[in-house]
């Protein structure tokens, strides 16, 4: 039986995450590289919304991450508010070889703040590091913006499989931290009234393998 056959009830955690950023920055290829280890040089612009699930075992617990991929092009976008609803994390992607995609981050951050949850984890991703000869945005600029806006930051290449897994895993672990802190806060303020209606338990970070943990140092929050 594959992971896809598991009933949602068997997962300790289900996280919704979304991909945002200008068209052609590589959102769909980051997703397909992460989930299926596939890359397409001739990929088409996304129309509407596509989904993927990524299941992982952490210790003896199952974690399911839903990843939503939408169109960067305005005319292909739909239902912006439902896209953001319930999202606990976002990969906000720009293309290091397209200055406009970096300049437009301001617009995307406004949208995130309008529709997204206030404690949504945001990972800023500068994609296409394999095209360093055509670089228009330095790593320092990306880093500085992330620092100013309180975002995580990473540069990636979907083509070369560079930092792709790291970016998604980092996002997932940051969501875990926010989620578990929220549960702790709720517990201390209303110790008697809290009941585990979803049947989900908290997983412990020390159960995460050392290899996955080593990428946790990049955040500015
Ligand atoms: P929309 O769906 O329109 O919003 O675009 P998108 O952000 O999903 O971009 P997509 O993944 O479709 O990639 C756009 C183009 O960039 C394609 O030709 C990809 O092959 C290319 N591309 C994506 N990632 C990389 C990368 O890391 N390096 C290089 N060199 N090209 C990439
Ligand atoms: Mg796409």
Compose a concise summary of this entry:
The chain has seven helices and six strands; from the N terminus they run βαββαβααβαβαα. The chain has 221 residues and is an alpha/beta fold.
Give the arrangement of secondary structure elements:
Layout: E1 13-20, H1 27-36, E2 49-58, E3 61-70, H2 80-84, E4 89-95, H3 99-103, H4 105-115, E5 121-127, H5 139-149, E6 152-156, H6 164-189, H7 210-213
Parallel strand pairs: 1-3, 1-4, 4-5, 5-6
Antiparallel strand pairs: 2-3
The structure holds guanosine-5'-triphosphate and magnesium ion (MG).
Guanosine-5'-triphosphate binds next to helix 1.
- Structure ligands: guanosine-5'-triphosphate, magnesium ion
| Strand ordering within the main sheet | 2-3-1-4-5-6
CATH topology: Rossmann fold
Tell me the Rg in angstroms: 17 Å
Poorly predicted parts: 191-221
Task: Just give the CATH class.
Answer: Alpha Beta
From the spread of the alpha carbons, the general shape counts as: globular
Order of helices and strands: EHEEHEHHEHEHH
**CATH homologous superfamily, by name?**
P-loop containing nucleotide triphosphate hydrolases
Number of domains: 1
In words, what does this structure look like?
This protein has a 6-stranded mixed sheet, sandwiched between helices. It has 221 residues and is of the alpha/beta class. The protein has 7 helices and 6 strands. The model is unreliable at 191-221 (pLDDT under 50). It is 33% helix and 21% strand. It has one domain (8-182): Rossmann fold (3-Layer(aba) Sandwich), CATH 3.40.50. A hairpin with a 2-residue loop joins strand 2 (49-58) and strand 3 (61-70). Guanosine-5'-triphosphate is lined by residues 23-29, 40-41, 43, 45-46, 71-73, 127-128, 130-131, 157-159.
């Amino acid at each position: 039986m594959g992971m896809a056959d598991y009933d949602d009830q068997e997962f300790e955690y289900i996280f919704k995450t979304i991909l945002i950023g200008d068209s052609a920055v590589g959102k769909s290829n980051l997703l397909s590289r992460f989930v299926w280890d596939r890359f397409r040089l001739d990929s088409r612009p996304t129309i509407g919304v596509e989904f993927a699930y990524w299941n992982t075992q952490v210790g003896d617990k199952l974690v399911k991450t839903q990843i939503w991929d939408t169109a960067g092009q305005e005319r292909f976008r739909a239902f912006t508010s439902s896209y953001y609803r319930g999202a606990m994390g976002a990969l906000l992607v720009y293309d290091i070889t397209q200055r406009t995609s970096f300049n437009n981050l301001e617009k995307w951050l406004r949208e995130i703040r309008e529709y997204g949850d206030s404690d949504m984890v945001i990972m800023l991703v500068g994609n296409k590091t394999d095209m360093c000869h055509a670089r228009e945005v330095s790593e320092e600029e990306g880093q500085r913006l992330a620092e100013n806006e309180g975002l995580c930051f990473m540069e990636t290449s979907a083509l070369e499989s560079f930092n792709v897994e790291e970016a998604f895993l980092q996002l997932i672990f940051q969501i875990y931290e926010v989620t578990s802190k929220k549960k702790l806060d709720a517990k201390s303020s209303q110790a008697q009234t809290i009941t585990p209606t979803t049947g989900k338990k908290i997983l412990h970070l020390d159960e995460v393998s050392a290899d996955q943990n080593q990428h946790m140092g990049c955040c500015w929050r």
